[in-house]
Amino acid sequence: MNRPLDLYDIQGNICKGYGRFGFPKARYFFLEFHDSGFAREFIGKLLPLITTAETWPAEGLAGKPRSTTNIAFTYEGLKALGLPQRSLDGFPQEFKMGMKPRAAILGDDGPSAPEHWDPVWQGDRVHAWVSVNGQAKEFVEQRFSEVESLINQSHGGVSIRPGHRGPDGNLLAWQDASAVYENGKPTPKEHFGYTDGIGNPYFEGCGNNPQRLAGRGKLTKEGKWAPLATGEFILGHVDEAKEYPLAPEPHLLARNGTYMVYRKLHENVQSFNDYIDNLARDFDGSRDMLMAKLSGRWPDNGAPLTLAANDAEKAELDARMGQLKAKADDGDACAAGQLQALQARWIDFTYEQDKDGARCPVGAHIRRANTRASLETTKEAFNSPSALDDRRRLLRRGLPYGGEHGAATDESEQGIIFMCLGASLERQFEFVQQQWMNYSNDFKLGNDRDALIGANNGQLTDKHIVQADPQGDKAPFFCTHLPRLVETRGGDYFFIPSITALDMMAQGIVDPT
Amino acid sequence: MSNRSGKAYALTTLCPIRNGHEGNMSFDKITRHRIQLLEEDSGSPFARIPNTYFARLFILNDVFFEQGNDVHHDHLKSKYLVFTSNFHGDLKPYLKGMWDNANDTVRSIWEHAVAFDKVRNSDDFIAYIRKCQLTTSLFFNGSTDDELRFQLKSLYIKQAFSEFVLAHQNKSTSELRTAFNEFMQQMQSDNLNDVSWIPGQTRLSHLY
Ligand code: HEM
């Protein structure tokens, strides 16, 4: 059992996806340090602006700031700040290497190869990531100007590193991100048209509403949901192996901090639409159903295939939801309760009743990304049913970018700024990306790759299988010639220090001895 | 423990390497260097030895212990050339096939093994290897005990068939029947020598 977390010492983006709390706009920008002293002074001045993980009300905007600010550092950045060598030595190898040399592991080949990344990533000059989220664009810009003026006061010790490809091929000094808007309202959609941002791990001490636990935690032997150990996501706390995660010294540098993956993932929207349109003609089902069979969730409302596996079941589910909503709106408390119970099943599910993938294909994106105990193929083979998943969970913190300028093509700028957090980049993100997204041995699907984000190349055998019910008389459906739908346009690995560690770094008193 | 499992045979041999050196290279280093230069995949000398499922060569320098220094440890008196092979059939004909088909490789890799200078022909080689053999039953999981060409043919047809399925989805019954007949003819399933993988091959060029 971990002690309660000191949420005021932890940066806010670790415990919260700001998007969900009413912050649909963001700006990410990257710093380069030219002088360690002035850079440290800058961090000291930025410190009061840093948003912590203090608990906010889930609903409404009262009691929340209008914008947030968070900061994280690359290994090169920590070096440039003059951290002692012994502290630097304690960081894990993949973090020291950074994302580019890991290209072979991450499947960043062909159009995703680092030489094609946005100019900001060329060389090793990205030292820090700063993110500003806001309730509206103006609040993002206000906070950005505040940070910019601190940079301007840094005597040249800190600069913003430009070079993000923008909408017209022009280069910008920052990366803006935004929820996708429909009818002037932010939605949880991404640019292929899926509903995103539903599944995320629930860990001990995270400060989130316990109602969110079911379907987001880990599965116990008794088949109950329990919070994941804090140490899976935050350094200095016990993890699922009942150990403290490997961390640099001193203890205070690492404790309450964590690692972050930042990836700009371009979405080839035209290729996606063409591919789906083309395949849908041969598919026994609607276009939406085909889309769902790739991701595992229905695009319009994110309902999981475990809940509605085909068009007929989906229509039934929608009708039932509609009825319950109408009754609940009329003040029917019983219907309101039923509605809530039904909505809980959007996230509270496993693949236990769907071993063959006849409902949710075994290679669907969400089934690869979070296997939900389905790797325990023999009952009680492990200490708990989700033992093989619990150490591979990813805290996702991304937002879509681009797509504001008319019809989307492959060339126009749109995609997802994918960010995910965890105590081990190698064990969590890199493993999932390499073994589960770009390979399928664990799923007994040979060399198949994820249909949405896999490094596919349009070959016949670049495929995704929509399994059929082995008892039924329907044939499985093969999605062949999968093109490269998502391309990496840049990214790196970052360390997100605690408030205590930031303060020590600012003062230059990090001392591993 | 047995070296046999059905018609499959698991050979494990440890041949001591002479202490000594040539110039500044010790014999074990020379041997390792030669092993590391061997070609891979279908160019590998093992691919020429009939019925080899899986074979491996490496140098064993010493044994490692995980306990502390206060425990008594035995160490090897010399370095060993380790050769393991999983194959179909009996040991004697296999080793004869090895001698006959990969003679240059065998002579060069075993050159510095103790007493190998006395080996002149396939009978000597068989006797030599049997002296160095251990009983282990270390079988390679990815194989049955069938003849190699039969296994290669099965793998070939399996892969070709999965491509056939992908390429002919949603075809009408009659189209499918025609295409499948064509496919089966193309496969020549009774011909174990052709339209198949070649030994050592790891990738198939696509059919469709
Ligand atoms: C442009 C790229 C991507 C797109 C369009 C995409 C799309 C989606 C969608 C539509 C969902 C379902 C909604 C939800 O459950 O929240 C989802 C879930 C998820 N994705 Fe992705 N994704 C992308 C990249 C990635 C990457 C790179 C990873 C990790 C390597 C990843 C890991 C996950 C995880 C862990 C979940 C939640 C699964 C669960 O808990 O059931 N995604 N994604």
UniProtKB/TrEMBL annotation, chain A:
Q: Which UniProt keywords apply?
A: Iron, Metal-binding, Oxidoreductase, Peroxidase
Cofactor requirement:
heme b
| Domain DyP dimeric alpha+beta barrel residue range list | 9-155
The domain of life for this entry's organism is: Bacteria
- The yes or no answer to whether the keyword Protein transport is present is no
InterPro entries, alphabetized: Dimeric_a/b-barrel (IPR011008), DyP_N (IPR049509), Dyp_peroxidase (IPR006314)
What name does the UniProt record give this protein?
A: DyP dimeric alpha+beta barrel domain-containing protein
- Organism expressing this protein natively: Thalassolituus marinus
UniProtKB/TrEMBL annotation, chain B:
Protein's UniProt name = Uncharacterized protein
Q: Which organism is it from?
A: Thalassolituus marinus
